[in-house]
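Translate sequence into C-alpha cells.
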Amino acid sequence: MNGGKLLVFLSFIAMLLSGCLGTRYLKPNEQLLFKQKTQIPKSFDIDALEELYVQSPNRQFPIIPLSPYVWFYQKGIKNYDKEALGLEKEDLRSYYDSLITHAKSTKKKNKLTQKRNRKSQKIDKKIKEGNVLMRWGEPLALYDSQATASNKLKIQQYLFSKGYFDSKITHKTSNTAKLLTSTYEVSEGQPYIIDTVISKIGDNTVEQLLNLRKSKIKTSENYSQTNLTNERDAINDYLKNNGYYNFSREYISFDIDTAHQDHGVAVRTVIKNPLSEQKHHQFTIDSINFVVNESTTNSSDSLSFRRNYQNIEYSAYDAFYKPKVLNRRVFLHQGDLYSKQNTFDTQRQLANLDVFKFININYDSTGGRFIANIFTQPLPRYQWTNEFGVNVSQGIPGPFYNTTFKKRNIFRGLENFELSGRLGVEVSASATDLDDPFNFEAGINAALIFPKFILPIKNLKREKLGYLNPKTKLSIGYSLTDRPEYSRKNANFRTTYSWGKQLNTSYNFSLADVSIIDSEIDSIFNNRLIELRNNGSNLIRSFQPSFVSSMSFFVIKNFNNYGLGKHNSSYIQLFTESGGTTQNFISTQPLEDQGLETYKFLKFNIDYRKVSQLTKRAGVAFRVNAGIAIPYGDNEVLPYEKYFFAGGSNGIRGWRPRRLGPGSYNHIDVNSGEVSYQIEQPGEILIQASIEFRRNLFGFVDWAYFVDVGNIWTINEDKTRPGAQFSSERFLKEFAVASGLGLRFDFVFLIIRFDAGMKIHDPARPEGKRFIFSDGFNDAPFDINDKTEPVIFNIGIGYPF
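Result follows.
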C-alpha cells in the first residue's frame, strides 16, 4: 500500500471512529469518557461496585472500539423537539375531548377515552425518554469531574460497608485525541474484624426467645453492613413468627465500637421497647373467620351459608365449598401464636387451589381480642380459554391453537375439571417426501384435578399434607402425530401425584401412565425399517401396534426464578422412569394375543441450567443435559417416543432436529453417495452441554455467541449404524461441536430468537478430518454444499435454555 492510499485509509478509519465513538460531536473543551478502570483486589466484586457509579463510558461493541449507541442517539436527537411534542399532545387531547363530548353512547365515550389515553402515553414516553433512536442509543459520556468525585465517594462507601474503614482512593486520567481514560486506584487497608457480639434488649421474653436462634453476626469475620441488614431482617421475621404481630425493623439498631482494640469491632444489637410500654405484645389467635364473598361490595352480613368447622367460622354466599377441604389449606389455629410464615403459607396454598380470584388475610386486634380474617372471592366456575402461538419444539416454527374448558369445584370439594384440545403444524425435513415437510399434531385431553392425594390415608394425615400443596390428576387423552414418514395415534391414561412445600421445588410421581399406540408407516420409510431389520436392527418394532405402561418420578428445583428476568439463577430437573414394571409379575400374553408390542425399560435424565449475570447488560448461561434409556425386554427396543434425539434449536444448533448422531455414524445416501440428514436418528444415551454469552445490543435487541457440544449413542452395537455404540475409549472424540451467533428480540411478553449454528467438529467425518476447517474439509462425501449443511438457521420462541 503506497503512502497516498495509506493516508486515505487512515483518514477513513479516523472518521469512522470519530463518528461511532462520538468525538465528532464534542464541543470545545469537552472530553469523552472512553474508558474507566478500577484497580481493586480480586476479592472484591468489581461488577457490583461499577453498578454504583454515577458515570460510566458509552457502551461499545465487543473487541471493536465502536459505540453505535452514540450515533443512534445523535441521529435521534436531531429530530427531537420537546416543545413540538407538548403541542402535539395538547392538540391530540383537544381533538379527542371534542369527539368524546359529541359521542352519543357511554360505550363509544369509553373507547375514545381509552384511545386518547393510549396515544397520550406514547407522546409522554417520547417527551420523557426521547424518540426510538434516542431510546436505542445513549448520550455522550462527557467527562465530569463532579461525577468522578461522586464515584470516589461511592467506592469508599462500598469498602466501608465491607469493613475497610481506612481505605484510600486516588484518581488519575490520561487523554488521547479527546478520548479520556479514568483510573481509580484503591488501597483498601486492613479490614476490621468483629471480635465481640453483645446485645441490649429491653424485653426479657424477647431476649430469651432470641437466645434460641443463631445470629448472622459472627466473631472472627469481617465487619459487613450486609450481615447487619440480614440480621435485622432475620430478627424481625423470627419474632413475627412467634407472636409479635406489631413488631417492626425500626425497633432494631446496632452500635458499632472500633476504639477498644486495634482493627477489632464490637457489635451490640439493640432492641428497643415500644414508646410508653415496658415490653412488646405477643399475640395469640382468639378466633378465625373465613369469608367467601362473590363481590367485594357485598356485606358479609348478607352471606347465607354459615358453619363452624374445627374452630373456624365459615361464611359464604351459598354452601358451595366444603369446609373440611378448605381446612386442609388453612394453617392458622385458634390458640396459636401469630405467625407471619403460617399466614403466608395459608395465602399461598389457598391460591394454589385455583378457585379463588384473590385471598386477603388481615388481623383485627381491637377490643382486646386478636381475630384472623380470611377474605376470598371465587373465580368464575366456568372458564374457556383460547391460545394461539408458534410451535418451535423441533423444526421451523409453525402455528398452533390450544383451547381449554374448565369447570371449577365440580364436586364441591375444590376439584377442577379440564377439557383441552390442541392443533399444531410444524415444518421439519422429511426422510421420504422432500416436497412435504409439514408435521401435523392434534390432541384432546380430559382431566380431573383433586386438591389432595387419592390414597387410603386418614383425615389427620390429609390435613398435615396440606402444607405440601398435594394434588392428584387423573387424565385421559387421545393424540395424533402425522409426519410424512409415519403417523402415530396414542390413547393415553395417566394418574399423577404432585406436591411441593417450597416455592422453588416441585415433585411429580406418575403412578400409572398407560398408552395404546398405533402407527401407519409410509412405504418408503417402511422399506427402510425392513432393511434395518434385515441387518439386525429391531427399530421397526417401535412402530408396531403397542401397549406402553410406565411409572415415572421427577423433581424440579428452580432457584431465584430461573427463566424470569435477567439475574443470577439456576434450574435442575431429575427424571426417572420405569416402563413395563408390572410385566415382570403379570403375564403379557393377553396383550400379545391382541397383536400389541410391549416394552420394558428404565430411563434416567438430568437437566441442569444456570444463568450468571456479569453486568446489567451482559450474562453467561450454560446447560448440561444427560440421560440414558435402557431397554431390557425381549424385543430390546424402546417405544419411539422414549428415545433420545439430538440437534435442533434447543440442542446442538449446527444440526437439524433429530438428525445428529448416533456416535460417529454417518448416513450415506445410496443414490447420490453423499451425506444425508433426512433420517431421524434415535439413541439411548444422551450427553449434551451448551454455553452462551448474552449481551444487550440496543433497546430490545440482544445478541448471543454460543457453543454447543454433545451427541447421542446406542448402548449395544447396531450393525445398521456403524460407530453408533457408546465406547468409553472414544466417546470424547465423538462429541459434535457447533458454534454460532444469534439475535434475541425481547418484547418482555415474548422473546423471538434467531440463531445461526455452524458445525465445528463433526464426528460423522473420518478421524483426523472431523474439524470442519481441517485439510479434509472438501473430501467427498463431505464437500461444502447445500446437502451437508455447514450452517443451520434456527428460529425459536424464548431462550434455548
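Note: The radius of gyration is 33 Å.
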